[in-house]
Predict the 3D structure of the following.
Amino acid sequence: MSRNHPDHRSPGQILVTAAEIDDIVARLGREISVDYADRHPILISLLKGGVVFLADLIRHLTIPHHIEFMRVSSYESTRSKGAVRIISDLDTSIDGRDILLVEDVIDTGMTLAYIVDMLRLRNPGSLEVCALLRKRVTPRRAGIPIRYLGHEIPDTFVVGYGLDHDENYRNLPFIAALDPGLGR
Ligand code: IMP
Ligand code: MG
């Protein structure tokens, strides 16, 4: 697959290249495989943005695991709406299970905090977070423990590798900043 195909043109500066993403995801997969060696975790991905990351991540896992999906919404275009809405919940019990929440990008941390609180009420055996990206401002806004972190990026709106702007750009094999003229 050509990385120069017109549909792969970047809408702004590339912040994480495809090769860098490969290395990051492989590292996270190794770390998770070691830590969960004698367990059988459920990886929960947040649709839709997290799906590309999850698909690549599980191919680096060498341990038995299940995957599940939730769909939540907190964003409209490039701004957080300030409220998290569950659009599609899990259809399986997590009681006593080892849960790894797989998130694409953490910005304000609001979405994650809400989901973590909600899932804790369902009595998982353990609950950890794996995030591909975290914006550098996140810790000041919300102190969410992230057990596995891929990469820190500046406080800017990014697209690619599953992340969208109004549903576009999810196909880009890299992470790019969205040029201000394109929707901020
Ligand atoms: P938070 O609640 O502000 O941390 O936002 C978390 C969710 O908003 C992520 O799961 C993404 O779906 C979305 N989001 C946050 N920042 C970006 C971005 O820069 N690009 C695309 N989606 C984003
Ligand atoms: Mg999104």
